[in-house]
Amino acid sequence: MKTVVHKADTRGRADHGWLKSQHTFSFSSYQNPERMNFGKLRVLNDDVVQPKMGFGTHPHQNMEIISIPLKGALSHKDSMGNTRAIEVGEVQVMSAGTGLTHSEFNDSTTDEVNFLQVWILPETKGVTPNYEQRLFANSKAINRLQTVVAPADKLEGEALPIHQQAYIYKTTLKADHILEIKPKVAGNGVYIFTAEGKVTVANHHLERRDAIGVWDSDTVTLTAKENSDVIIIEVPMN
Q1: Distance CA 20, CA 47 (A)
Q2: pLDDT tens across 163-212, in order?
Q3: Beta-bridge mates of residue 118
Q4: Which of 59, 89, 95 is nearest to 74 (CA)?
Q5: Distances from the Cα of 153 to the Cαs of 159, 162, 235, in angstroms?
Q6: DSSP string, the chain
Q7: 135 and 89 in contact (C-beta within 8 Å)?
Q8: How does pLDDT run across 56-94, given as a tens digit for each residue?
Q9: pTM of the shown model
Q10: How far apart are CA 189 and CA 38, in angstroms?
Q11: Residue 225 neighbours by CB distance under 10 Å
Q12: What's the distance, Cα to Cα, between the start and end of the chain in Å?
């Protein structure tokens, strides 16, 4: 088993006034050669957008982009004609492929929006752009893995498709619960992000917004030290 631990306070930080962002991996002005990626996981940003502010229209290409709201609602508009709000409990995926543009905005006049932005390198470049989002019942995530994103050629249940042999799971763990994580694809690693709470993984104690990557292991044991919400990203390492 190999591990890498990323404590919350070691992330890159950017404060643009309207946007406060913490970068697990190198992004924009934060460049750290030791924090370029975890396998095919390229970006994990923890973004807070102020009321009535947002990201103007901007392009993406050949990237699998996943947004997971943690607080508030974020309005989305893209060049494919999608105009939607993404709320807590929902997950949004965009396969940028040959290219698209989109914007994101916090319509609230009083409340911040906090969401995770995840970028995964695609298995195949030049695919037709795609957008999907779905509400996932939290009751299905209590003390078990809820698959919210899966490879397009291996979809299961309600999972949203991406063009990579990668999965994203959500789980809401009760205190003292022990969860076994087994990668679905041989050779994949798992990146465990503690959105809320406290957990233990591979003898490492993780608190709110701490993370650990684990690879070269058939099973990863996750123990909740208190009620916790956890995001698990399984990706190819090569």
Answers
A1: 6
A2: 999 999 999 999 999 999 999 999 999 999 999 999 999 999 999 999 99
A3: 44, 66
A4: 89
A5: 11, 9, 15
A6: -EEEEE-GGGSEEEE-SSEEEEESS-BTTB--TT-S-BTTEEEEEEEEE-TT-EEEEEEE-S-EEEEEEEESEEEEEETTS-EEEEETTEEEEEE-TT-EEEEEE---SS--EEEEEEEE--SSSSPPPEEEEEE--GGGGBTS-EEEEEEGGG--TTPEEESSS-EEEEEEEPTT-EEEE--SSTTEEEEEEEEES-EEETTEEE-TT-EEEEES-S-EEEEESSSEEEEEEEEE--
A7: yes
A8: 999 999 999 999 999 999 999 999 999 999 999 999 999
A9: 0.97
A10: 8
A11: 15
A12: 16
Structure tokens that stand for 225 in this block: 């030290």
Residue with tokens 């030049």: 126
- The residue whose two tokens read 């209590």 is 142
Which neighbouring-strand residues pair with 231?
A: 170, 193
Which residue in 43, 47, 60, 45 sits closest to 19, CA to CA?
Answer: 47
**Could you identify the residue written with the tokens 């989002």?**
133
State which amino acid sits at residue 176: D
**126: its two tokens:** 């030049």
Provide the residue count of the chain.
238
Pair of tokens at residue 51 = 């009321």
Q: What is d(CA 39, CA 213) in angstroms, rounded to the nearest whole number?
A: 10
Q: What is the DSSP string of 16-40?
A: -SSEEEEESS-BTTB--TT-S-BTT
